[in-house]
Amino acid sequence: MILSHKFSFRHSCPDSPLYGLPGKPDGETLVSTNGVFELGFFNLNNSTNRYVGIWYSQISVPTYVWVANRESPLTDRSGVLTVTTPGVLAILNRTNGTVWSSAFFTTPAPNPIARLLDSGNLIVKDADDDGFTWQSFDYTCDTLLSGIRLGWNYITGVETYSSSWKSDDDPAKGEYSSIVEF
């Protein structure tokens, strides 16, 4: 058991990939093999809004490096993070409605899993393939980790840029962005 920054116990296991349904409910986390990064649900300060994100797991002050649903928080602890066939990473609410997903940005994977790498990059991949079909590094927030490449990716058609949070209590896109133009 790991004691999280909000003083609640979380069940986690290093390098356990996330397979399909039922997924990881709020309160369970994925930890990178090196133990540096952790993925799970969190809230900010006294807010009841819940987000799925990646943070440094060994730092006492919460330091979030990526937030999936930064524009669409859950309002309670009913959320589940899952990866579905054909390889869509999704956050579901209590009625199994999709709050956020990678659906528009995913290449199909017949046997999909999600894995949190030692770099802090969350990837979705086919369990039988070495490549990945989606990665969080293409959808950065306000933190640039080693391995993130800003700019236009001509292979995926994705423009990667960083953007500030709206406020300390709201990870939605803020007023400032860092964009690479050629």
From TrEMBL:
Keyword field: Glycoprotein, Signal
InterPro entries on file: Bulb-type_lectin_dom, Bulb-type_lectin_dom_sf
Family annotation (SMART domains): B_lectin
Top-level taxon in the UniProt lineage: Eukaryota
Domain Bulb-type lectin stretches: 15-137
A Pfam cross-reference name: B_lectin
Manganese recorded as keyword: no
Name under which the protein is recorded: Bulb-type lectin domain-containing protein
UniProt source species: Salvia splendens
Lineage: Eukaryota, Viridiplantae, Streptophyta, Embryophyta, Tracheophyta
